[in-house]
Specification:
- This protein has 306 residues and is of the alpha/beta class.
- 42% of the residues lie in helices and 16% in strands.
- It has helices at residues 31-37, 55-68, 81-93, 108-116, 128-142, 152-158, 160-169, 184-196, 227-237, 246-260, 266-273, 299-304; strands spanning 27-29, 40-45, 73-77, 96-102, 120-124, 145-146, 175-179, 202-208, 242-244, 285-290.
- Helix 2 (55-68) packs parallel to helix 3.
- The relative contact order is 0.16.
Length: 306
């Protein structure tokens, strides 16, 4: 990905490239779900990235730039996927990684990934917002690079998924639906499509009704840090923010596995769950972003599959 899109990324000829082979993820036609909803639905399977989520696109750029700047480590706050990605890319670069997370709020599979990569885990009492504040303070104290999505290099890497979708389809879709946690991925897709020019797909971020208590742990964020950018993306593309309940997320999650053979983590299914309220018209081409592999939150299967 870094070499492929180097000209569109903030990478110079001397930037050391820290990569695990991220990007070039499948775009798969969802035949049965398309027929049921009367749409042409495609699924961008970001769980095929090296650590199992879309975060790898942005982390490859952020960690490459951290190495270039002489950082001795990286730090992040996370609901899980950012943590796993930061830990893996830091290990690849030979940097220390510190992960701050809300105690008991991260799926076990993601914690295992962080530990396997040798990162330092710091649980804090409270919410993701509390972990975010603590990670920011830690970055200042220890001189580490902060690699959450407020680091602009993260969004630069993540925008490449928009480039790939246009290449894979031969043009932009009519609509893009994706899970809405912190909003960074929405901002990144908007940036990517905007750089390619008109026409822009209607962007539909889908959030959980009970943000702090949803079963979709990857989007369990109460106060989206990119809320203003999401509002701009929605307004400028004619999209809308859709809110869905956990029952709708679980139903879509089961359908993706049983009807399409794609096992994603529950948060990913929010994109499909939100289509009924998206305003999509019959026959339109819609891309739903499946942000993470189902094995990232395998425990959810035992809890939700019945």
């Amino acid at each position: 990905m870094l070499e492929r899109y180097r000209a569109a990324l903030p990478l110079s000829e001397t930037t050391p490239l820290v990569t695990l082979g991220e990007g070039s993820t499948p775009l798969i036609r969802a035949n049965r779900v398309s027929e049921r909803l009367g749409l042409e639905i495609w699924l961008k399977c970001e769980g095929a990235n090296p650590t199992g989520s879309f975060k790898d696109r942005g982390m490859a750029v952020a960690v490459s730039k951290a190495v270039e700047s002489g950082a001795r480590g990286v730090v992040c706050a996370s609901t899980g996927n950012t943590a796993a990605s930061a830990a893996a890319y830091a290990a690849r670069a030979g940097l220390e990684a510190v992960v701050v997370h809300a105690a008991g709020a991260v799926a076990a599979g993601k914690i295992v990934q962080v530990r396997a990569a040798g990162a330092r885990l710091l649980p804090v009492e409270g919410s993701f917002e509390d972990a975010f504040a603590a990670a920011l303070a830690l970055a200042e104290d220890e001189g580490h690079t902060f690699v959450n999505s407020t680091n602009p290099h993260r969004l630069e890497g993540q925008k490449t998924a928009a480039f790939e979708i246009v290449e894979q389809l031969g043009g932009p879709p009519d609509m893009l639906a994706l899970p809405y946690g912190g909003g960074g991925n929405t901002a990144a897709y908007f940036k990517g499509f905007s750089e390619l020019g008109d026409p822009l797909p209607a962007i539909v971020p889908v959030q959980a009704a009970a943000r702090l208590e949803t079963v979709a742990s990857a989007i369990r964020i109460g106060a989206p840090v990119h809320a203003d950018e999401v509002a701009e993306a929605v307004a400028k593309t004619g999209g809308r923010v859709v809110t869905v309940g956990d029952a709708e997320i679980v139903s879509a999650w089961k359908s993706l596995a049983r009807d399409e053979g794609l096992f994603c983590e529950p948060a990913s299914a929010a994109a499909v769950a939100g289509l009924s309220g998206s305003g999509a018209e019959a026959g339109q081409r819609v891309v739903c972003v499946l942000t993470g592999n189902g094995l990232k939150d395998a425990a959810a299967f035992e809890q939700l599959a019945n």
